[in-house]
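Exam review. A common question shows you a sequence with its structure tokens and asks you to describe the fold in words. Practice with the pair below. Do the first one on your own.
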Amino acid sequence: MSGSFIYQVLILCVRPCYNCNVFVSDKAPVCKCILGASFLSSVLINFPLSQYRHLCVYDYSLIVEKHQLWRLITARVAFLDVKDLMIGSILFYYFRTFERRYGSRKFFAQLIGFFLFGSALELCAVHICKLLQFNMVPLPSGPLCFIYPLFVPYFMDIPRIELGNVLGIPMTGKSFQYFLGLQVASGSLETIIVAVCGIISGILWRKNFLKIQQLIVIPNTVASIVYKVFGRFIESAEPKDSVLPMGATLELQRQERMDQIEQQVLLQSIRDQGPLYNPNQGAAYNPNQNGPGLFGALNDEIPYADLDEGLRQRNVPAPDPPSDEQIQQLVDMGFSEERVRRALLMSHNDLNNATNFLLQESL
């Protein structure tokens, strides 16, 4: 492993600590721990501790015939392939947004469900391939069973922003992530099995197959104890600078550019609604003229009633008040009720746009 490669992967693990109010401040300890643990364990198991490399091999015959069920866990700890380590780290870094949306407890319960569904599906798939007399080698090691299922909510829930066309093929802000996933999955029959089983696991969790979402719940007491024990090791001080550094790799630079385009689209959607009347100033009010955030005044404590008053001053019919269910759904994500009401007002009670407003507001 070259020094430049180690530096690039370290950037992936360290850069979230500099990403203001995204990774550390928004409490994403699960992603942080998995990224750090998988990188460190992969480096250790491939170099100074290479004599223990065999313990992380995902071998079907050893698991089923010799009942070494512990391999289902150790095979998820470290990547034995350098390419899988690099791409898997990048993808999991991108998917950290789901922990921010769901919360750490729900996100960790989701990963447990992915592990259970994925392990069962992978073992069944390998067994069928052996019955069909396919020449099988051990499945790829590493936490891929957590990564591929996240492509399901990524496809369903993340907005699609078209950037252009390449040879007639539309390119979006999500194309790069799909390309990385296909790069790993196309390596062999074994990687295809892991990828397909992972996607099916994501679908089963989303459909709440066998009521799995009600069966796997992390109690508040357990989460509190774990945080008290390990919190000091995963907490980081917020950066003093509000300016984000430029990505150290081309992949990070592309992602930053995509983020900027998405922010511009969201900002333009607000501007298209026209200026609101500010009763305190007696003039048209631009929601982006004050404040450090992307949406400016959304970061200021503007009362919900003032925004509604601005609509009345413009003789614009006030939108229907947000439902209690919409408010509670966003409050459960960790946002305050006042900010939730403002975001729903700005988005005309569109839950997806309100969620994007609240997430962008914390950047």
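Now try the second one, then compare your answer with the model answer below.
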Amino acid sequence: MVPPVRTAGAAATAVSVIAVLSYILINNLRPRLRGDSRKHRSGILAAIGNTPLIRINSLSDATGCEILGKAEFLNPGGSVKDRVAVKIFEEALESGELSPGGVVTEGSAGSTAISLATVAPAYGCKCHVVVPDDAAIEKSQILEALGATVERVKPVSITHREHYVNIARRRALEANGLASEHQSSRQTGKQKNQVDDGVLVQGKQSSPSLVDRKGGGFFADQFENLANFRAHYEGTGPEIWEQVGGHLDAFVAAAGTGGTVAGVSRFLKEKKSSIKCFLIDPPGSGLFNKVTRGVMYTREEAEGRRLKNPFDTITEGIGINRLTQNFKMAALDGAFRGSDMEAVEMSRYLLNNDGLFLGSSSAMNCVGAVKVAQKLGRGHTIVTILCDSGMRHFSKFYNAQYLSQYNLTPSATGLEFLGLETRRLLMKKAAECGDTVVNHFYTSI
């Protein structure tokens, strides 16, 4: 007869084996994200992505829909752009366009640049960022703290040579020129006098230090580089699909470069064609017209009545008047206009009711989610992107004095700025009275 102790030990061993086999089986059966390279990442890079999809309780309860936000502000660099930064570095290094020790240049209003500067050390590289000087000052301060070289310039049209994106492109070429000169001097043993302490002089203008003349430069080009699109097609989209378990009716987001809305919409549409995907577009942007009318301009512009310098939005990182390669990849069913006032009011509403301290683009996305809920009606599941937190928006979007200059001081006590508060109160009153006919009427609005 086998001793009881040995029988218990054998049973424990059997249970352990079954547990291990179950773990292996479950993990082999679990859907894997296409193109997912995170298994090769470590350190801070491994912490990017897999952000939670949270229910925005106040908006869900008010609309009768499940409104879910992808909490991208929980990425290490604080925004959805972390995904893009990693993809840009990985593809550039793999193709040989960027060498370890080189400098990545970018023209950015903030978030993409911060993400590039955050992950650059993990790849042994540096960043040189050109920022419009009307962007929130705290973004430049963060960039400098992260070790990036920051160049603030006057905002001008994208067609102008001195637009911040065009300057960033030149800086990459300058860095490559420095690298070539360094290589040439090594081969010939001669010293060049055209470079002084890492600063390249061109005519009357001199750029800040390009960091390391040996490694060359690479222009990240977030607007046209399709690594942006692929980061969301291969990462964000599949994560959302997995998190909702395939039960999704609509997706909505604003667009700056267009990478997020394009990558996510394209992936979700391929998984389930009935999912409706929408754009929410701020003032001054032409993308709403492109989606709804097929052209970037309004009817007023076609008639030559628009002002030379049209009103722009106070939201940062979204809205654009040109068609990028990334946005061209989007699969959209429609678009909504969102106002600055709606974004400001939404940010305060979410802070007061949900404890969500969100940036301007995130607030606009939530405005879009409510507009989609109003269009589709109750009982639908809607996902949007919570791009970043309000931590980078103190000097503008959360600055009472700044907002008052544009008559954007928030005053709403509920969601009346989207026409929902009256409806909610009427529904409550109908429910209290037990009037099923009235209640049915208001719940179907």
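Model answer, second protein: The first strand starts at residue 53 and ends at 55. The CA atoms of residues 48 and 76 lie 6 Å apart. Full marks require stating both points clearly.
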